[in-house]
Amino acid sequence: MSAATEAFLVMLAAERGAAINTLAAYRRDFAGAEEAIGDLAAADRDAVASLAGEWASIAPASVARKASALRQFFGFAIDEGWRQDDPSGSLPRPRARRPLPKVMGHDQIAALFAHAEDEASGDDPKAVRLLALIELLYGSGLRATELVSLPLHAVPRDAPFLTVTGKGGASRMVPVGARALEAVGRWLALRPQVPASRFLFPSGKAAHFSRVRLFQLVKALAGRAGLDPAGISPHVLRHAFATHLLEGGADLRVLQTLLGHADISTTQIYTHVDAARLVALVNSRHPLATKATSD
After folding, report:
1. Is 238 a catalytic residue?
2. 143 carries an active-site annotation
3. pLDDT at residue number 203
């Protein structure tokens, strides 16, 4: 990549606290664009417009993400004095529809956890670790990266809360239920003593458990529980946490805080699964509903 795009990534990390995965995604987008049209700091408007053809075969959501990355870079390049013009107006602006989250039913959750609890009934560290992992995914709605990178000091001592570092380095407190606390307590008793590791779920000398391995273990557990692994993942368990809280009457603003969403519009996508409850709520609570029924 060019020196200009490398400088932009350094700025993202230092000033905006961008996460490793975010930086990796930007790096891929910039590398692909510069492979096609050269140094982005020097590319003219026609060259930038030609990226629409390069991206013609990929999904609209991916095009929108790539275009957003380049728009941010061009704004940065102007601020730094590397460019006098902003060619981002020639980038495509696809309308990417936000995909609806996959939903796990209560019966699927029950089957998954029943099998995990059976496997963890003894003292097998791997089985107990997996139970603790899925309890935190479903019980606290953590992102996969947030979960695997939890430091030991995040484990609650006197209060049933976890301190979680989310996207952009933002910290938040999330509640931990009694079931999850018990599972984590069992895991701590069996956790290997790795002096150099500060993580709740260590892997090797200093690293933490990987997102990829978590994904693999959750899929495998779903298969052993008689569920379709294609429809279950760590992120689907996070979706289930949000969906089932809404079904139980949770406030959308509270859910936004629990999930660590910067914008409530991201949280609102979960309301589609609870349409029936919302209709019933209007029919039972709206001031004119009682009058219409009595008439």
Report:
1. yes
2. yes
3. 83
Q: Do 227 and 111 contact (CB within 8 A), yes or no?
A: yes
For 144-187, write each residue's pLDDT tens digit.
Answer: 988 998 888 888 777 788 888 777 777 888 888 889 989 999 99
* Residue 272 pLDDT level (bands cut at 50, 70, 90): low
235 is catalytic: yes
Residue 165 backbone dihedrals phi, psi, to 5 degrees: -100, 115
- Answer whether CATH 3.30.565.10 is correct for domain 106-275: no
Tokens standing for 13? 């990390």
pLDDT of 292 above 70? no
Prediction pTM value? 0.64
Which carries the bigger pLDDT value, residue 206 or residue 52? 52
CB 132 within 8 A of CB 177: no
* Token pair listed for 275: 């349409």
Among 65, 71, 179, 235, the active-site one is: 235
153 is catalytic: no
- Assigned token pair, 193: 């003593």
Fold of 3-90: DNA polymerase; domain 1 (1.10.150)
Give CA–CA dist 241/138, Å, rounded.
5
- What pLDDT band is residue 217 in, cutting at 50, 70 and 90? very high
Question: In the chain, what are the domain boundaries?
Answer: 3-90, 106-275
The answer to whether 149 and 214 have CB atoms below 8 angstroms apart is: no
Query: How far is 79 from 76, CA to CA, in rounded Å?
Result: 5
Is 138 annotated in the active site?
Answer: no
Candidate list 219, 238, 239, 244, residue with the active-site label: 238
